[in-house]
Each structure stands twice: as structure tokens, then as C-alpha cells.
Amino acid sequence: MRKKMGLAVFLAALAALVLPAVAGAASLTEVAGTVEEKASELNMVWVAVATALVFLMQAGFMFLEIGFSRQKNAGTGVAKILINLAIVTLAWWAIGYGVAEGGGNDFFGDSGFFFHFDQTVAGEAVTGETSMLMLYGLAFCAVSLAIVWGTTLERIKFGVYVIYAIVFGAVIYPLIAHAVWGGGLLSDIGGKPVMDFAGSSVVHLTGAVGALSALLLLGPRKGKYDANGKPRVIPGHSMPLVGLGVIILWIGWFGFNGGSTFETGESFFGEVMLNTQLAAAAGVIGASLAVYLKSRTLDVGMAGNGAIAGLVGITAPSGFVEYWAAPIIGLVAGLLVVYAVLAIDKLLDDPVGALSAHGLAGIWGTLAVGIFASPRLIVEGAGPGIWYGIFGDQSLSNAFGQLGVQGLAVAFTFVVVLVISLATFAIIKATIGLRVSDDEEEAGLDISSHGMYGYPEQFIPQPEYSTGLPGTLGSGAAVPAPAPAQMTATETR
Amino acid sequence: MKKIEAFIRHEAFEPIRAELLDKGFPSLSIIEAKGSGRQKGIVEKYRGSTLTVNVRPKLKVEVVVEDKDKGLVVETILKHARTGEVGDGKIFVIPVEEAIRIRTGEGGEPVLQVHEDSEIPT
Lengths: 493, 122
Fold this sequence. Notes:
By secondary structure, chain A is mainly α.
């Protein structure tokens, strides 16, 4: 791969420069060794920055979902994000990481459980670098899980999070990550690997299929469909919060895609990040255009969905396509999300549009690699995008082969996640139940599940500001009590 | 005694309040109301779908005055609340049996009178 070559050239050049200066003090091998060590550490510093950015995306999901909820379901969104993040962390540490990255066979890894030192993971001893990459993997798993709950707002039982988060963090996401990134089934299909740079399929489609499974068994919110089955609008309470969520996700995505280089060689992450920005921008434009054509208004929420769809779309191709392709990928994702949200709304109650923005855009992004992947950037063994077969001199059959492999990744992810998720949610439904009672749903999850309101002043009347004047309530002593006779007079009605 | 209940546009309230105070009627209440009349509802668009809100926000102003002052208050409201467009609102005049000031317990017409400056704590 070009990136590895670049590192070797860089090391040689640096060693040649450094050598005269330290002549006699250190041998060439020692210097080269040190340089290599420092380069590896620099790589991990970049991954550390990216990890923090990806964890920031949790705040993005939180605000996005709270903004699209009603006021009576604002606080539960906060509790949901915190509890899910906590549980998935422990599940990933104990089991998930081993299943995803622990070598093993085509289907699952078999080392690295209860991640610790004095342990080998996929044949290599655990180091600080392994730990950094393990944490980065966790951040991805947590993003994927956060996507799941977008369809379930305002009616799901809190206990469902706890159970599904364990299954998701230990089994579902790790199986998919292992298949594509951990040397599993999808990393070699007839010699061709699936190219999913940062996870349009692995992370976003996985989360969206989990969301679909939950929604199928959970059903719509009360009042979402009228007696004739026509969808009704249940507006979210805060577009500013939605906007804040979108912008935080957008910024976090630079760590999501940019960090997936895992190294700083040739500053390749710069290319990835620019692709990310171009697609997000085009996504906003695509969705705004589509919703304007459809309804003659520039819908605030849809513009946000467009940004997310553009970002999801570019996630898989971000390290494989040229700059001209990124806006096309984002624009298509943005157009797609609007029509998909409107079509899905007729059947399924998806308050934030997770199925469209993460699911369909995730599928589009994975396939877009097979259309636009540049021969300059593809990984060893893979075919370029069919664009380069049609308009360039690349082999078209090779390109179609790669597109087929990308399609297989979509199908594999969809089926595996759907089956395990449906089974998990069915078991939960049959035991503790998925849904809160009608009364609890009416009252809102804040007060019924958490015993408090997210916005107390909206629900509990507040006293007026006491000016400290004599005669205000509670300072009765300053004012003589009304004469009993007068009080009696008021009672004669 | 009469209670004057006026459903008005929000923007009409401030001039009405100022003029009533000027004329010696500082006591009034307002309530945020939602209602429907000849004015159509608001059509909102949300995520590409339309949402019709069939009631519109109005302010309900309540003033209780002696019978002789009724005309003056009604005129003041009409003067400031009328734009001539559909949606200006309505005024209802309702008889009131009794009025009691909670602070002192006194009842009757003194309750509706303007305070002397000396009575108002600073």
C-alpha cells in the first residue's frame, strides 16, 4: 500500500539526515529504530485525538434525538446515552473486542477477552498501541449502538437498553466488525476485500438495522397514525437542539473518518477529512433541495438529516475516492434521505429518520465505493469503481466484481444484524416487555421512567418572584390577619 | 359590576394596558388563550409533511369594573384591538356578583377603585 511505502521513504530520509549529527553516538539501526518508534507514537496521538472526537458524537446523538422528541421526553434522552455508553464499554472490554479483533476464524475472533496486559490478541502482545486501537474500536461500537435507538423514542422501556446494549456490544457489532475489519469472511471474497473505510456498513447500516428490528416489534408512538392509518406529524420540541446535534456529529465525523487512517503518513487523513466535508456539504444541499421541491419550504430538520446522510454516505468511500466524487456521493445521499423519510413515514414511525439517514445512506455509501473508488487509492486485491471501467481504462469486469463484493457486505450486514436483533428484541418483548404502558407514554418517559421532568418549569407551576415587600406570602406577621367577620362575608355566596 | 372579557391579538395588549392605567384602571388579568373563529388555523410544515394547527394563540384580557365604567373600557379595547381584519377577536360583558380584595378581606366597590398613591408601597 502507498501509505506504508511513504513511511519507509520518510524513515530512510530522516535517518540519513540525522546520522551525521549523531555520528559516533548511535548506530544507524538505533536511530532508525527510534524514528520508527516515534512515528508509531505520533500515529497513536492522531488516533487518540480521533477517539475523543468520535466519543463527542454521543453528545451529537443526544441533542439530535432530544430535539426531535417532545418536551416530556427530553430528560430520558440524556439517561439513555449515558447508560448505553457505560454498558457498551464494559461489554466491548469483556467480550466484544475479542470477537471483533481477536484473530480467530472467518466468523469471530478468539482472543483479547477481558482485555488486559500479559495477553496476546491475534498473536500479538498487548501494548499501549493495542489499547489505543481497542478504545477507538469501542468509540465506533458506541456510535453504532446510539443509532439503534433513534427509531424507538418516546415509548421504549428503559430496561430494553440495558439488555440489548450487552448483546450489541458483545456480539452483534463485533461480528460485523470482525467480518470486514478483523480478517473475517468479508475481508477476502474470491481475493477481493470489502472496502468500507470507516463503516458505512459496519457502523451505520448495522445500527440502522438494529433500529429497524426494534421498531418492527415496538410499533409506532400513540397518535402517530389516525384511524385510517394516515401518518400524523408529531413535531419535535427543539430545532436548535437538533442543529446543535448535527453540528457536533459533523465535527465528530472528522475523527470517525479521518482517524480511520490509523496513521499520519503523508497526512493522508487530510484527504479523508476533505472528502468528509465535501460530502456533508453536498448532503445538506441535496436534502434542502429535495424537501423544497417536495413541500416548497426549507425544512430545518431535513437539512440536518441531509448533513448526516452525506456524512454516512462518505464514511465508506472517504479513503478511496477522489475529491470530485465526494460531493456527488453526498448529494445523492441528501436527495435520498428526504424521499426515504417521507416514504418510510407512511408505514413506520421513525422520529429522527435513522432508517433513512443511517440505513439507506449507509447502503448507498458502501455501494458508492464500487462506483467511485479510485485506482490510486484502492487496497490491494480490490477492484476500482465501475466509473473507471466505463470512462477510464480499468477492467470493467474487475470493477463490477468489486461492486458485487460491496453488495455482499450490505446483504451480510443486513441479514446477520436483523436476525440476531429481532431474536433479542423478541425475547425482551416476551419477558420484560418492550413498551411502556399507554399512561406512561401519555405522561412522558421523563416522569414515568425517571421520576423527574427534563424541563420541570414546563410542567410544574413556579411561584412569582418575591419582591421582599411586606405582605408577600410567608411573611404574614407583617400584615395583620383579616378580620374574621370579613372572612365570613366572603363565604356567603 | 361587570366583567369585560376580551379576546385580542397579542400586539394589541400593550396599548390597551397603558391607556386603561392612564384612565385609572390598573387592575386586569391576561390569560394566554388558544381558539378558533373565522380566522383559519396555521399550517405548519415539518419534515416534508403538513401539520394544521386549528387554533390560534390569542390573549384573553379580563377587567372587572363598576357598571358606569363599562363603556369606557370597551371603547378603549375596541380602539386598540381593531385592525379591520378577520381575527381581531371578541369582547364579552358579564355581570359580576361580588368582588373581594384578598389582602384586607374587604368587599364591594372599593375593591375596584384605584389606589391613592399613598396606599401603594414603594
